[in-house]
Automatic annotation (TrEMBL):
Pfam families noted in UniProt: DUF2795 (PF11387)
Organism: Luedemannella flava
Location of region: Disordered: 1-43
Name of protein: DUF2795 domain-containing protein
Basic and acidic residues compositional bias, start-end: 1-16
Domain of life: Bacteria
Annotated InterPro entries: DUF2795
Length: 114
């Protein structure tokens, strides 16, 4: 009985060990949508910059227009460069996501194929 219990517990975690790729299958990667390519694909540095920018914009405020975003980033104590970027947004648009805001500022954004 003890051996059966030991065998059962050693197999209990088999489900979370990934299976290796088959001979005719590509090696799995962490990017689920493939590489970001093309003339407007953001570099890793740009993605990090967008992440830093986006941390000042809580999701709870979205969707929001320029004035609402400016109020939020100012009250959060965002750096002047973030406040200046928000102030430069068009006043007549409503933004649903940080990526939309980032794109409206003229920065590269990802696009999913398909």
């Amino acid at each position: 009985m003890a051996r059966e219990m030991r065998d059962a517990t050693s197999r209990a975690r088999d489900w979370d060990a990934p299976e290796p790729a088959g001979d005719d299958q590509p090696t799995p990667r962490l990017l689920p949508y493939g590489e970001m390519t093309g003339p407007l694909a953001p570099s890793p540095a740009e993605i990090a910059e967008r992440s830093e920018f986006g941390k000042w914009i809580p999701r709870s405020v979205l969707p929001a227009d320029r004035d609402a975003l400016a109020e939020v980033v100012r009250s959060a104590g965002a750096p002047d460069r973030v406040v200046d970027q928000i102030d430069s947004l068009p006043p007549d648009l409503t933004f649903e996501t940080v990526v939309q805001i980032w794109g409206a500022l003229g920065h590269a954004t990802e696009a999913r194929a398909g």
